[in-house]
């Protein structure tokens, strides 16, 4: 995944109808030996609202596969990514429908409301449940993306922050990127994604908290 010279590129890419779309590459390796390759792995929020113009952007970026971490209830609410010629959609839901029961949701979200100390608890659950799906993506990269390949993939969940962020943390960490840079990359989601007010209100009612509480926990800690 590394290279010796980094091309200066825009990290944020405007894909119409998609939030939080950015390149995971371009970061330096901490021993100074190179950089993570750009334009190979992208992360974002869900693609259900992508427009025809946005689809053309994906084609220009040579995207061949989209790994979708969303679960069935999320897809039912937000919609599927439209079919795109030449792009394989890979369902990679790590949470089942049962994980979205009121009791399960309340238990999982409790950690978010415990602040920075609660996030590691929630993320440990995501890491455990997501391990088989993260492994699948790593295998795809090894099998389909040689040093000479110009093809790319997308990883995403609903916001492109938590489940997606943990995969990107693993990827960058394995490639030798410094922990502080990985944390800063994670924090970029606070700039790239925001919840519509009606969605914040829906979650607040479901979790019996205030809208401001939900707004805080849906941003990067």
From TrEMBL:
Single GO MF descriptor: phosphoprotein phosphatase activity
Domain Tyrosine specific protein phosphatases positions: 136-172
Top-rank taxon: Eukaryota
Signal peptide: none
Protein name: Tyrosine specific protein phosphatases domain-containing protein
Entry-linked InterPro entries: Prot-tyrosine_phosphatase-like, Tyr/Ser_Pase_IphP-type, Tyr_Pase_AS, Tyr_Pase_dom
Organism: Rhizopus microsporus var. microsporus
């Amino acid at each position: 995944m590394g290279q010796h010279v980094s091309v200066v590129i825009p990290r944020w890419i405007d894909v119409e109808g998609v939030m939080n779309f950015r390149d995971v590459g371009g970061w330096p390796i901490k021993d100074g030996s190179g950089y993570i390759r750009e334009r190979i792995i992208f992360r974002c929020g869900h693609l259900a609202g992508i427009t025809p113009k946005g689809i053309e952007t994906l084609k220009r970026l040579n995207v061949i596969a989209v790994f979708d971490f969303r679960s069935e209830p999320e897809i039912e609410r937000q919609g599927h990514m439209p079919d795109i010629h030449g792009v394989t959609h890979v369902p990679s839901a790590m949470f089942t429908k049962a994980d979205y029961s009121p009791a399960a949701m309340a238990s999982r979200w409790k950690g978010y409301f415990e602040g920075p100390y609660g996030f590691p608890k929630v993320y440990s659950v995501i890491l455990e449940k997501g391990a088989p799906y993260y492994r699948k993506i790593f295998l795809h990269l090894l099998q389909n993306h040689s040093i000479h390949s110009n093809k790319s993939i997308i990883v995403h969940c609903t916001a492109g922050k938590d489940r997606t962020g943990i995969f990107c943390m693993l990827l960058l960490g394995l490639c030798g990127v410094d922990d502080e840079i990985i944390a800063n990359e994670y924090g970029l989601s606070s700039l790239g994604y925001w919840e519509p007010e009606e969605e914040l209100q829906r979650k607040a009612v479901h979790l019996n908290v205030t809208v401001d509480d939900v707004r805080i926990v849906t941003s990067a800690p």
